[in-house]
Amino acid sequence: MGSNIKKSAVRSQKSKTTPLTPPLQKGRAGGGAPDLSVNIAGINLKNPVMTASGTFGYGEEFAPYLDLNRLGAVVVKGLSLKPRQGNPPPRIVETAAGMLNSIGLQNVGVELFVEKKLPFLKKFDTKVIVNFFGDSIDEYCEVAKVLDSAEGVAGLEMNISCPNKQEGWLEFGTNPAMTFKVVSAVRKSTKLPLIVKLSPNVTDITAIAKAAKDAGADALSLINTLSGMAVDANTRRPKLGNIIGGLSGPAIKPVALKMVWQVFKAVKLPLIGIGGIMTAEDAIEFMLVGASAIQVGTANFVEPQASIKILEGIADYFKKNKIKSVKELVGSLQV
Ligand SMILES: Cc1cc2nc3c(=O)[nH]c(=O)nc-3n(C[C@H](O)[C@H](O)[C@H](O)COP(=O)(O)O)c2cc1C
Predict the structure, then answer these.
(1) Are 244 and 227 spatial neighbours (Cβ–Cβ below 8 Å)?
(2) How confident is the model at residue 166, as a pLDDT?
(3) Could you tell me which of 205, 264, 268, 269 has the fewest CB atoms within 10 Å of its CB?
(4) Does 93 reside within a domain?
């Protein structure tokens, strides 16, 4: 990955030694290892650090670079009923403090995942959370049913940032009535813990969050990528093959923080914060605004061990500030 994102990764290394804000910064580090465990939607995680869907493959791609056993959970690339090729290239473009992608939900399909990818992941002492989607309510339910009977899946993360191709192409996650319909149907198709992943491309994210809760979601994760595009002034052409893509990375962190804070105040469900988390400080900020756990996405492309470094930084912060559990921090923003 290029220079813009690298700069913030470098900043993160420096900030490891920078004291964090008072009044939390009191006393010296010491004592035993802090308890970082959290329970999200009935899933017991050893720590609140997960990898974000689509940025960590099916886990095996990253296994040579970091110890997957240390992660709270691995969230795999979004799965559909049948394999998908995705969008035409180019599919990734760097932007100011972020990146645009138009992968187009390329994946191996749920059956092949269960047969070929899940056995590898099951060997590790980490939770496997499976991200999935569909073109129709029926497809969402079919995928959920296959996963429901697969051993080794700790929970489902439902990506509702995709168009409902059966009913007019509007994205499931941009309309509360449609969110309610698809989440209720999936809720009836699986007994697994159900996390609904929210799209930021909406006027009022709290309305969608409430609809997901009313339909039976056990937890919410937010945010997915922000819709965007990039243009080449010299060729007068779009930089992405698909013209439009999804923006991620440090550029979206302020938007994500605001949305987690809004949803935290509006809906009583565990929240997973996502969006531009490059450092432990970023992760702590998400906890302060209401996230009980976090996902690391674009940072994995800059530094494959980013999630482990963020985990270590969170542990240091807990020790320095004598924080005994994640709960103490969640939503404790002083306003
Ligand atoms: C290349 C790429 C592929 C992604 N694929 C998926 C996906 O399949 N399902 C999904 O729910 N989110 C997907 N996302 C969104 C991320 O999981 C995450 O929500 C988003 O990138 C914001 O986090 P970040 O700024 O830390 O990357 C993808 C993101 C990227 C960059």
Answers:
(1) yes
(2) 84
(3) 268
(4) yes
